[in-house]
Design goal:
single chain; 438 residues; alpha/beta; Rossmann fold; pyruvate-formate lyase- activating enzyme; OB fold (Dihydrolipoamide Acetyltransferase, E2P); 5-stranded mixed β-barrel; 12 helices; binds S-adenosyl-L-homocysteine; binds iron/sulfur cluster; binds FE3-S4 cluster
Length: 438
């Protein structure tokens, strides 16, 4: 039997695409392997969001050159966001011509026919579409987990934040029909899935362009009503259009998880404007306060970019200030990375490395303090945990998440996919510890 290996970089969208790609190649008769020496087909699903993602990909790709020499029949396919960039495909053609297949984010469903073509030709095949109106429905899926699943509810992005490559790599925003989403969720529930995570670059604009518009809040409610689904998560929410209706739906519906990921990017109104984010410092803080007031046990997490072009010390202090005022449960912090083709890449005032590093370290210090403070609120509390499995480092310890997405390692009885009551006995920056209570 032929074997395939898939390597996925980047966000949950890519993970979800990889699950579909895996499903398709399994239908062609391949079985999965984690060992590259065993593989007849290697697929690399790439991310382009920051420079280091690109570097990691090219590093790994370079390593496969030797493997290809030893095993000339090995098929090497590369796909994902990086392949939507002309200069990347050019580089592959010129310097990595041992690659067999290049395809993009808009045509993952062509992989079976590309593989067929590849068998016949054995030379580099490139098929990248600039954009596509099609939403591939009903592709086979190899899911990573039995008890939880990703469901893409839309693709693309129309926001063009000035630093971001995603609108160029994923094309224009398109929402799936809610009927298709609901039937996918029902099928997942029949399959034993307890938790679904609805995915989109900006879920709050879901449904706006459908013939029969459906607001995201309504979709969320309908999904949470599917029998068998115990938990619903979603990401990501753009602060500019998070509606009151959405806050109410979450508040009134215990199956919807107590967690909102709300990327702020910067605390400075001036920088936010340059970033094309359509909100300012005050509206962001007010929004967070409103959410916390309406849904008291909610966790709010965020993304922050440090060192956007022209960022001054004063701008950066605004970021720290918002962090303190919003007391995020956690944050993903990034150093600004210049992406070719974006507006910010050609802005004057790129910030020097030393200044950025210093700001980044100060932000991390505040982050650690506040995260620990937020986690301490959980001490001695009883929480419901959906068990994800055994801890990687200790077979006697189980691991899972609270509704608010806190990672908890705990002792006691339970199986993957069970929801159990756990008492929190200790807290740390990156996880909580506890034990199951009968
Ligand atoms: N659609 C999501 C974000 C997807 S990208 C949203 O708008 O919230 C995930 C995160 O990567 C972004 O929130 C941003 O913080 C970060 N990011 C995107 N482009 C970046 C860049 N050029 N440099 C550094 N970080 C970036
Ligand atoms: Fe990128 Fe902004 Fe779209 Fe998010 S909303 S994917 S940050 S352009
Ligand atoms: Fe995701 Fe990276 Fe593409 S973050 S959308 S895989 S550029």
């Amino acid at each position: 039997m032929k074997k395939y290996l898939i390597i996925t970089y980047g966000c949950q969208m890519n993970e979800n695409d990889s699950e579909k790609i895996s499903g398709m190649v399994e239908e062609l008769g391949y079985s999965r392997t984690e060992d590259e020496k065993d593989a007849d087909l290697i697929i690399m699903n790439t991310c382009s969001v920051r420079e280091n993602a690109n570097n990691r990909f090219f590093g790994n790709l370079g390593n496969f050159k030797k493997l290809k020499k030893k095993k000339p029949d090995l098929i090497l396919a590369v796909c994902g966001c990086m392949m939507q960039e002309g200069h990347i495909v050019k580089k592959i053609k010129e310097k990595y011509s041992f690659v067999d297949i290049v395809f993009g984010t808009h045509n993952i469903s062509s992989l079976p026919s590309l593989l067929e073509e590849c068998d016949a030709k054995r030379k580099l095949i490139v098929e990248v579409l600039e954009d596509s109106d099609k939403l591939a429905e009903g592709l086979p899926v190899h899911r990573q987990f039995k008890h939880k699943a990703f469901v893409s509810i839309m693709k693309g992005c129309n926001n063009f934040c000035s630093y971001c490559i995603v609108p160029y790599t994923r094309g224009r925003e398109r929402s799936r029909e809610y009927q298709n989403i609901l039937s996918e969720v029902r099928e997942l529930a029949n399959d034993g899935v307890k938790e679904v995570t609805l995915l989109g670059q900006n879920v709050n604009s879901y449904g706006k362009n459908l013939d029969d518009p459906v607001p995201f809040a309504k979709l969320l409610k309908m999904v949470s009503e599917v029998e068998g689904i115990e938990r619903v998560r979603f990401m990501t929410s753009h602060p500019k259009d998070l509606s009151d209706e959405l806050i109410e739906v979450i508040r009134d519906n215990p199956k919807i998880c107590r967690h909102i990921h709300l990327p702020m990017q910067s605390g400075s109104s001036r920088i936010l404007k340059l970033m094309n984010r359509h909100y300012d410092k005050d509206t962001y803080i007010k929004l967070v306060k409103k959410i916390r007031r309406e849904i008291p046990d909610v966790a709010i997490t965020t993304d922050i970019i440090v060192g956007f072009p022209t960022e001054t010390e004063e701008d950066f202090l605004d970021t720290l200030d918002v962090y303190k005022k919003c007391e995020f449960d956690t944050a993903f912090t990034f150093i600004y990375s210049k992406r070719e083709g974006t507006k910010a890449a050609v802005m004057d005032g790129q910030i020097d490395e030393k200044t950025v590093k210093d700001r980044f370290d100060r932000l991390l210090k505040l982050h650690d303090e506040i995260v620990l403070k937020q986690n301490k609120k959980y001490l001695n509390r009883e929480v419901d945990i959906l068990i994800d499995g055994k801890s990687k480092t200790n077979d006697n310890v189980l691991t899972g998440r609270t509704s608010s997405f806190k990672l908890v390692n705990f002792t006691g009885k339970g199986e993957t996919g069970d929801i159990v009551k756990v008492k929190i006995t200790d807290v740390h920056t990156f996880h909580l510890s506890g034990e199951v209570i009968e």
